[in-house]
Design brief:
Distance between the termini: 54 Å
Number of helices: 10
Largest sheet: 7 strands, mixed
Helix content: 40-55%
Strand content: 5-15%
């Protein structure tokens, strides 16, 4: 009988990390019950086929496993895509990135992206006038598919331009604006709507769209409520409401440039 070696430890650690990341992503996307169900099914499969050696049940479950994995890939392709993006994201190498940026910014220059303050000013002005708005900031996952659902703009980020786009009489005010690579790429875009039952009923379609895009991608979505003027932000499937201008600026400054 072979001893328990380093390869076995690495095997367990890798599987544990994969399960942890899958658990976190599916929890953020509201599909945690599916994750628990899959784990329960795998546990039954291992016990019956490997430990108890029940051939008939083991054979049937083997067939379900081969088909079930394909079904899960089809149903949760967005979550799996996000998982792979997260795995290869620059944030996984945060230590090296932090050292590089610290060394590069010793001259005292600010690391804050140039689009942050125009977005903050626009959101504060729209909050005062209770002008509804939905702004999405691209991160690692490309948003070209959603950009094509609206009207392409490709303009510099400007607070007055943002306010004009979301002005109530503007033809683009109902959709979402997408900012990528320090540019306003498109406006009037259609986003996936979250069906999370935990979202308060008082929140409207803009909030559900913001939550939806944050669940299917790693993008950050800012919402200005047309009813209350409150500013909210959605990221990684979490919605934070009633932000102040300072809190909004801090959160946006921490995003990738």
């Amino acid at each position: 009988m072979e001893g328990f070696g380093i390869k076995d430890i690495l095997d367990i650690v890798i599987v544990a990390l994969m399960l942890y990341y899958l658990y976190r992503i599916m929890k953020e996307s509201g599909t945690i019950n599916v994750f628990i169900g899959v784990l329960a099914f795998i546990a039954v499969w291992v016990v019956t086929s490997e430990i108890l050696e029940m051939r008939l049940i083991g054979t049937i479950l083997d067939r379900f496993m081969s088909i079930g994995l394909l079904v899960l890939v089809i149903l949760f392709q967005d979550q799996l895509k996000r998982f792979l993006v997260e795995l290869g994201s620059q944030r996984r190498w945060k230590l090296f990135k932090h050292i590089f940026h610290h060394h590069r910014s010793k001259d005292g220059s600010s690391d804050e992206p140039s689009w942050v303050m125009p977005v903050v000013y626009a959101c504060m002005n729209m909050s005062k006038s209770k002008t509804g708005a939905l702004i999405v900031i691209e991160q690692e996952v490309p948003l070209e598919t959603y950009e094509k659902s609206g009207d392409m703009i490709d303009a510099a980020v400007n607070s007055r331009l943002i306010e004009n786009i979301f002005f109530k009489n503007s033809p683009l005010h109902d959709g979402a604006m997408i900012i990528a690579h320090d540019r306003i790429k498109a406006a009037g875009c259609i986003l996936p709507v979250s069906h999370d039952t935990n979202v308060p009923r008082s929140l409207g379609l803009r909030h559900r769209s913001a939550l939806g895009i944050s669940q299917t991608t790693d993008a950050v979505a800012i919402v200005v409520s047309e009813e209350t003027g409150n500013i909210s932000i959605a990221h990684r499937g979490q919605l934070k409401t009633r932000l102040t201008s300072t809190e909004l600026e801090q959160r946006l400054s921490q995003l990738k440039q």
